């Protein structure tokens, strides 16, 4: 069977399983099985592919048929132009979250805290873009902290990143930061069933939803932040599309000024930032 025929067969199977972009995913998985860049697929003939690689491709297509996310299957995701290791223990970094990073980079900072860092995509991207800064990431999940440590090493910034296992800020040693960022779990409990199977069935529930109306993390973070921020410090969080007003009010109630709601490329409220003074 030619590579083109194998790709067509895989695409058909993925399409039947309800995968949104089956042709693209089939190509991404084949390239990953071959260990090459997707753009080089056209240069490959079937004779260049070993049996082991074909079986690997077959296993990957089967996983995708079960709606496992592509990033989990190939073990990586590009975020802000950097490559992050992704496992089933962490949230798959989202393009919307790149917007939070852009906003964070608007103002210089020397120290940054990421609450619930998961893969580390936010914290580690910020450290990578600002070579003189240092950062702390906390997460309640020990498995997530391991993934973040792998990513810090891959990016060569392990010396500037510290990881603390902590339920919110409970176990964090007393200190202050110029910047606090967080993309907490914010999906309301009753919205979980409506999620795509890739998210609902495969991503860690603890990274997706705090239960209830999804707003509790913002209460915890806005109430705690002033105690962990320098006087001119900044707090930036990602929010759900319908949480802007409620979270902006929490910022204001805790004394934050210049509170700003920013939209993502889809036009949804996605990020809230505020300054302590
Ligand atoms: N900070 C990580 C991210 O943005 C993890 C967020 C989470 O698990 N809720 O991808």
UniProtKB/TrEMBL annotation:
The gene is prmC. The keyword S-adenosyl-L-methionine applies. SUPFAM superfamilies: S-adenosyl-L-methionine-dependent methyltransferases. Transmembrane segments: none annotated. InterPro entries: DNA_methylase_N6_adenine_CS, HemK-like, N5-glutamine_MTase, PrmC_N, RF_methyltr_PrmC, SAM-dependent_MTases_sf, Small_mtfrase_dom. Substrate binds at residues 183-186. It comes from Halocynthiibacter halioticoli. The lineage of its organism: Bacteria, Pseudomonadati, Pseudomonadota, Alphaproteobacteria, Rhodobacterales. S-adenosyl-L-methionine binds at residues 116-120, 139, 168, 183. Residues 7-75 form the Release factor glutamine methyltransferase N-terminal domain. Methylates the class 1 translation termination release factors RF1/PrfA and RF2/PrfB on the glutamine residue of the universally conserved GGQ motif. This is Release factor glutamine methyltransferase. It comes from the Bacteria. Residues 98-191 form the Methyltransferase small domain. Its EC number is 2.1.1.297. Pfam families: MTS, PrmC_N.
């Amino acid at each position: 069977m030619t590579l083109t025929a194998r790709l067509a067969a895989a695409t058909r199977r993925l399409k039947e399983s309800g995968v949104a972009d089956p042709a693209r995913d089939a190509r991404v998985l084949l390239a990953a099985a071959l260990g090459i860049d997707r753009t080089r697929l056209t240069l490959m003939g079937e004779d260049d592919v070993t049996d082991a690689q074909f079986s690997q491709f077959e296993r990957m297509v089967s996983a995708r048929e079960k709606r496992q996310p592509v990033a989990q299957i190939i073990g990586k995701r590009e975020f802000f132009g950097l490559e992050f290791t992704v496992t089933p223990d962490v949230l798959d970094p989202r393009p919307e979250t790149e917007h939070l990073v852009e906003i964070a980079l608007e103002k210089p900072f020397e120290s940054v805290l990421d609450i619930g860092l998961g893969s580390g995509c936010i914290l580690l991207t910020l450290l990578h873009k600002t070579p003189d800064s240092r950062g702390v990431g906390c997460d309640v999940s020990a498995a997530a902290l391991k993934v973040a440590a792998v990513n810090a090493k891959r990016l060569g910034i392990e010396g500037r990143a510290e990881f603390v296992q902590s339920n919110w800020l409970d176990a964090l040693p007393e200190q202050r930061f110029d910047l606090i960022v967080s993309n907490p779990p914010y999906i309301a409990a009753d919205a979980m069933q409506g999620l795509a199977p890739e998210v609902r069935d495969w991503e860690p529930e603890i990274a997706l939803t705090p239960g209830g109306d999804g707003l509790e993390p913002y209460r915890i973070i806005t109430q705690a932040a002033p105690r962990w921020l320098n006087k001119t410090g900044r707090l930036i969080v990602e929010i759900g599309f319908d949480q802007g007003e409620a979270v902006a009010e929490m910022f204001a109630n805790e004394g934050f000024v210049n509170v700003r709601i920013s939209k993502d490329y889809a036009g949804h409220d996605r990020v809230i930032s505020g300054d302590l003074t």
